[in-house]
Amino acid sequence: MTFSQTKADAGLVKALSGMVDSGRISHAILLHEDDGGGGVGVALAFLQYLYCRNRHDGDSCAACPPCNKIGKLIHPDIYFIFPVVLAGSSNSEGSPSEPYLVKWRELLLQNPGFTEAELYDALGFEGKATTIGASEANDLIRKLSRTSLEGGYTSVIIYLPERMNPTAANRLLKVLEEPPAMVQFVLVTHAPEKLLPTISSRCQLFRLQGDGATQALRYDDSGLFAELMDELLARDFASALETGERLAALPSRDNAILFCKFASEKMRRLFLLQQKLSALVPDADEAEKDWASKCRKTFPRKALEALDRSAQLIRRNVNLKILFTDLVNKLFLSI
Length: 335
Ligand SMILES: [Zn+2]
What we know:
This protein is an alpha/beta fold. The protein contains 15 helices and five strands. It is globular, with a radius of gyration of 21 Å.
């Protein structure tokens, strides 16, 4: 897959190809996509550019042998890891995701912009809990310690690293701390704030601007979010509760959900600003910078969990007044 076949905007393509051109490639790249945003396709396009023997005009040639193999998803030095339903005994050797590779390839070739749900449908996991487990991490470490078959980079694309269980995450962290030479990691995440901070800090983060984020930020909340943030930071619980009541009185449940999505996107921006990744939020305004500097480092993550949960409950018809009171209280306690 070439960059031109992906949903990456010109800025992102320039940043990724520029790293390869300059020879200063971060050994771990973290691509933040919205669900269904085509992040795995961009990860592949980046690797194809890295492996291509005839790059030109900022893109891979799509014709040389490495390009050809990557295009068919059969390059022997590129591994894929994604969450799967773990069988009862997880102490078995080998990669739990490997048996699903054929279906993974099929889906990825047909629909590089697949959603998480579409992946689980394709793999037959509907409604079951999925994980990237310790045995997957162990198997990966074994694979990365081998020499590459084609004499260049060995790479791995990890889809949804936030689904790693703690053991797997700690093993991956060790590899990221002391990466073997000529190993390239590309992590595709929906929620960078859910990763161990020690992992995300070792990666170079890129945001794949999707329609979801743009839409969420386009929502007009009539300044309610800003009011709430200022009240929470001023420790004015009574006013924050009043704002909560105004949120509960929004014209419809859809509106309440839109507010939660808007607030979530704002929290992600605060998270990035706090992590000194302001280059990823070039349009941050003074208010956002101010909030990021004043709230605790743990706040965006906790707020995102609470907002996520609230959006789910709104769909289930709970009492909005109780829900927003509870949400305001959780935000008040964690800010
Ligand atoms: Zn090529």
